Protein 1
Amino acid sequence: MTVAALPRSRTVARVVPGMPAEDGAGVKLTRLVGQPRLPDLDPLLMLDRIHSDDPRAYIAGFPPHPHRGFETVTYLVQGRMRHRDNHGHEGLITDGGVQWMTAGRGIEHSEMPEQTDGLLFGFQLWLNLPAAEKMREPWYRDIPAADLARLSPADGVEVVVIAGAWDDARGPAPERPTQPFIVDVALAPGAVADIPVPDGHAAFVHPFQGSVTLGPAEAGERVHDGWLAVLDDGGGLRAAADAEAGARLLVVAGRPLREPIAKYGPFVMNTRDELIQAVDDYRAGRF
């Protein structure tokens, strides 16, 4: 099998282990971005992974809570999650679906799992908004699995495109100043993919099944399920599965905003004063 080389493959800058965490009404999860070892990767603020076949670990879900100043992108590999918010949006994502919510100037929402056959497996990404858009109107969209772009760019490589573009396949996510690139890449045993991570974007890779070697063939680094690899600067990335086993990985990248980041719980602004205003506005019912 011959795979055309990218002009240059990014390499792994560092590898970060996930941190056990709990959020919402006691939902147990793994925090990969937004933890002490990796507070953020501008403009990628947080990545949580939920993977449990024990309903007691997640069924209480995430009751109503506020957000301001950023976006949440929820990708559900398996399971069901219902969204409701105080701006009249309601939706249900199921296996392979995506919820994209732009909190903007303020929103209060709930995310509640609905059990079918037990397993809840998915990710939530927090994506920053630039200062000029932090107070924009909230926005919400459900994207069912059938609406996601799919392609097979090489033998043994199957790709789901959530945001950004890969060859002629473009994800259905909204256009944003951060130009997000979010793909789910499945590799058969021995398969190799040249992933078109946009040049200049901050990027990471999270293998969530198997292990994968990232980077040029002569200097690649093997990364295992459950870890997160922060990539160095550059453009595309080569990913290779072991000859004996396949792999599946989430690849996320965004154009850095290079603006101050001020975080307090569910609010992400640029200054401390803006955070204080966000808390005041929420308490006063102005979301």
Protein 2
Amino acid sequence: MTPDTLLPALLASDPSRPRVTFYDDARGERIELSGRVLGNWVAKAANWLQDECGAEPGSTVRLDLPPTHWRTLYWALAIWAVGATVSGDDDADVVISMTAGDLVEPEASLAKSEIASAADQFTVYLPVDLSRPAIDRPAPVSYRDLIRPVDAASPRTVLEGTQPEVLRTAADVLAADGSVILFAHEDTSRRAGRLQDEGVTAAV
């Protein structure tokens, strides 16, 4: 499986199953996205990238967003849907941020994004080139090589680390028909109970 085919596979498997769960303890927020809802957000973001920014294979997009925010994940999936590269370059063609950039996302999970009115269906204009990088930092990883095998069926995994690490592991887990848990400003004293409640099988 490659990143651009990941989301269609999730929707074909079970569109109603939770695929992303996000906690922000500083704001007292919890958000859960099914495969269908995640797909809607990815389509909106991909349509915005393709139609408003002209993003295509070869374009670079910088995600100046927290590594474990749910918006970071749907933007990465949208970037891969259009065949572009998640870039760590300050001079990327497009910048998505929570402060300043081509598009500014709200930090609050439940606040409305600028892309909310975009279409829920996405059709890519140009085919994805599997030899191009899906992520370019710290070292380029191609579309063909991004997703690694996971030794579990339908894993439910907590993600932590740098943005490239989180995105790559999220792709691995989702490709294995699993789901991911993300934390921001976590109250660590609550983690054990949450892992049990969420049925987590691994923390990465």
Protein 3
Amino acid sequence: MRWSSDEAVSAADLQALREGVILHGRQQAQGSDARDIACAVHDEDGTLLAGACGRTEFERLYIDYLWVHPDRRGEGLGGDTLRRLEAQALRRGCRDALAETLLDDAAAIYEHLGYACIAHVHDFVPGFTRHTLLKVWRARD
């Protein structure tokens, strides 16, 4: 056997580890229907103005990233982007949506858009609280 640590662990090995853990978890849960989901908006020049991405799985939308170009923040573009992503998830049969953020302002925006904070960890990263938020469209049994 040959051990490696830190920077000596290749990017391919790191990716294989991630994929192995995810695959194992999905095999335990059975019935995974994971699919990537995304939406984006560009200006007439093709510059990305906002976007969101994540996955749908087990009748849930998992939001990984929601981003708005700094010059366009405060215009409602983030909320519009999120609503479009949610509409896609609803068409896929999702019952709820889960988001996490380290930013208090972002958590407040999610709450304004109908999400409820179900957990938070203070000082998750020094000076930042990790917020876990859930929006329920149809209750689970």
Protein 4
Amino acid sequence: MARRSVTQLGENESINEVYIASSKQLRPNRQGNLYLQVQLSDKTGIVNAMMWNANDSVYKRFEDGDYVRIQGTSQYYNGSMQVIVSHIEKIEAKDVDESDFMQIGPQRRDELLQELSEQLRSIRNIHLRNLAECFLIDEALIARFRTSPAAVKNHHAYEGGLLEHVVSLTKVAKAIVPFYPQVDEDLLVIGVLLHDIGKVDELSSDKGLAYSDEGQLIGHLVSGVSIVDQLVRASEKLSGEPFPNELALRIKHMVVSHHGKLEYGSPKVPMTAEALALHYIDSLDAHMHGFDRLLADDVNSDSRWTSYSPLFGRKLFKGGEA
């Protein structure tokens, strides 16, 4: 029997299926009785699940990141699908097909990394090319980069999501530069590469998607600047000469300003042509990816409109069949 993916769940269906568990919590209700809240996911999406009358024994049956077989019933709640669980148990990884749970498999990640490497090694500016080379030869950094998600939710929220996001943005960056001669292509490409590099330390996918302690306490903008400094020092060692100070400042400015507004978490707003371009193409890629996910995950299959989206702050129009 074909497995029942998250996006295939419908109203009031009986479920007996395997998913990845994350964000588990044992919480009391208003009467003081405990219930289990957990997120269930596969490569198609994430669904919230609840198990009433749970206890500490149920909570300890599995850890975040484990495969679990759940039995229960699906239902709509506040415009979203959720699962009411009657039974949950841990399943060993050897007993599942991991391709059902990876949105981007290892082979595809290798292809994306090769594509990115070719783009970076075509950079003309010698200082920026050396910087990119130091990134590519840092095996520990690359290992984290190729598996890191780009977010916990909203956009590219899966292993390899950061790599996919960066490769997509690199293509967009190169496409717009001919229309804006004031933008330095090499500098913009490096900004694309490093704007979210702090997420390799901010986010964790070992036990489901979550923020690390460093992510909670520092955040990826600060971590990103630290990584840029490390790469600059490595570049100086590689080339045997100082890295231009202003060039380093321009790169770090792109990192700290790419959210675009102070209220979005950027300590600085974009103040260079490359930083401005980076902000807008980053926002475009994130929102278009979020748009696709919202339509794919929307439970209102009979409606011409999606449910309300916190990412967009509105409902989105799906229209009818072409």
